[in-house]
């Protein structure tokens, strides 16, 4: 279990870290909204790096991963899933675009604009790409449950590539620029 030092003294965060029961998509959604609303906690941490998306683990336990991500214009994830975890994200600042796909062959892409305050949750095996297609920096809060599952990257061939467990810190996942 890891709790970011800025969050370690918060009783609610400690309780979340010790929970063994998996979180539902709705609980993840509420949690990302709650954290996004506590700007005094995450704003001092946020960074924007032009060479790659910046990210910081706020909490990692067996049942939950909670991340803060900073996006500069043009940055994007590769197309990926969350290895069977349920997930959610809330846009804390700026605007992001999510492109979701119906399956591993990347059929029927659906683009959704996510403005500040927008929150979305997704079921296990949701395949998507998230990008900052705007002209200003963005920040988002992400949560997955369970934690530590292998993300998979997709190229449209129908066969996913595996990415190491804890893949939010994997260079292949972190450096896709989308430019």
Rg calculated over all Cα atoms: 15 Å
Please identify the top-level CATH class: Mainly Beta
* Overall 3D shape: globular
Quote the CATH topology: Jelly Rolls
Distance between the termini: 35 Å
Main structural class:
alpha+beta
Q: Please give the number of β-strands.
A: 12
Major sheet size, sense and barrel closure: 6 strands, antiparallel
- Give the helix level as a range of percent: 10-25%
* Overall residue-averaged pLDDT value: 91
Count of DSSP-assigned helices: 4
Strands of the largest sheet, in order across it?
Answer: 1-2-3-10-5-8
Low-confidence stretches: 174-179
**CATH homologous superfamily grouping:** Jelly Rolls
Residues in β-strands, percent: 25-35%
What does this protein structure show overall?
It is a single chain. By secondary structure, the chain is of the alpha+beta class. The chain has one domain: Sandwich (Jelly Rolls). It is built from four helices and twelve strands. The chain has helices spanning 11-18, 25-37, 39-42, 171-174; strands at residues 2-3, 54-60, 65-71, 80-81, 86-93, 95-101, 110-115, 119-122, 127-131, 138-145, 152-153, 161-162. The strands form three sheets. The protein has a six-stranded antiparallel β-sheet with strand order 1-2-3-10-5-8, covered by helices on one side. Strands 4-11-12 form a three-stranded antiparallel β-sheet, with no helix packed on it. A three-stranded antiparallel β-sheet has the order 7-6-9, with no helix packed on it. The chain starts with a strand and ends in a 5-residue tail after the last helix.
